[in-house]
Amino acid sequence: MTTKATRLVIVTEKILHKEITRIIDAAGATGYTVTAAGGKGSRNVRSSGQPLVADSYPNIKIEVITADPAVAKQIADDVAARYFDNFSGITWLDEIEVHRLHKFQRQG
Amino acid sequence: MTTKATRLVIVTEKILHKEITRIIDAAGATGYTVTAAGGKGSRNVRSSGQPLVADSYPNIKIEVITADPAVAKQIADDVAARYFDNFSGITWLDEIEVHRLHKFQRQG
Amino acid sequence: MTTKATRLVIVTEKILHKEITRIIDAAGATGYTVTAAGGKGSRNVRSSGQPLVADSYPNIKIEVITADPAVAKQIADDVAARYFDNFSGITWLDEIEVHRLHKFQRQG
Amino acid sequence: MVDDLVTTRGDDVEAILEFLTRLVAQFQSPALAFLLGGMLLAALGSRLEIPDAIYKFLVFMLLMRIGLKGGMQISEANLGEMLLPMLFAVLIGCSIVLLGRITLARLPGVRGEDGIATAGLFGAVSGSTLAAAMVLLEVEGMEYEAWAPALYPFMDIPALILAIVLANLYLQRRAPATGTRLLAERQPVRLWPIVKDSLQGSALSALLLGLALGLLTEPASVYEDFYDPLFRGFLSVLMLVMGMEAYARLEELRRVAHWYALYAAVGPLLHGLLAFALGTIAHLVTGFSPGGVVLLAVMAASSSDISGPPTLRAAIPTANPSAYVGASTSVGTPVAIAIGIPLFLGLAEAVFGQF
Amino acid sequence: MVDDLVTTRGDDVEAILEFLTRLVAQFQSPALAFLLGGMLLAALGSRLEIPDAIYKFLVFMLLMRIGLKGGMQISEANLGEMLLPMLFAVLIGCSIVLLGRITLARLPGVRGEDGIATAGLFGAVSGSTLAAAMVLLEVEGMEYEAWAPALYPFMDIPALILAIVLANLYLQRRAPATGTRLLAERQPVRLWPIVKDSLQGSALSALLLGLALGLLTEPASVYEDFYDPLFRGFLSVLMLVMGMEAYARLEELRRVAHWYALYAAVGPLLHGLLAFALGTIAHLVTGFSPGGVVLLAVMAASSSDISGPPTLRAAIPTANPSAYVGASTSVGTPVAIAIGIPLFLGLAEAVFGQF
Amino acid sequence: MVDDLVTTRGDDVEAILEFLTRLVAQFQSPALAFLLGGMLLAALGSRLEIPDAIYKFLVFMLLMRIGLKGGMQISEANLGEMLLPMLFAVLIGCSIVLLGRITLARLPGVRGEDGIATAGLFGAVSGSTLAAAMVLLEVEGMEYEAWAPALYPFMDIPALILAIVLANLYLQRRAPATGTRLLAERQPVRLWPIVKDSLQGSALSALLLGLALGLLTEPASVYEDFYDPLFRGFLSVLMLVMGMEAYARLEELRRVAHWYALYAAVGPLLHGLLAFALGTIAHLVTGFSPGGVVLLAVMAASSSDISGPPTLRAAIPTANPSAYVGASTSVGTPVAIAIGIPLFLGLAEAVFGQF
Ligand SMILES: Nc1ncnc2c1ncn2[C@@H]1O[C@H](COP(=O)(O)O)[C@@H](O)[C@H]1O
Ligand SMILES: Nc1ncnc2c1ncn2[C@@H]1O[C@H](COP(=O)(O)O)[C@@H](O)[C@H]1O
Ligand SMILES: Nc1ncnc2c1ncn2[C@@H]1O[C@H](COP(=O)(O)O)[C@@H](O)[C@H]1O
Ligand code: NA
Ligand code: NA
Ligand code: NA
Question: Considering A59, D57, D220, D339, which has the largest number of Cβ atoms within 10 A of its Cβ?
Answer without folding.
Answer: A59
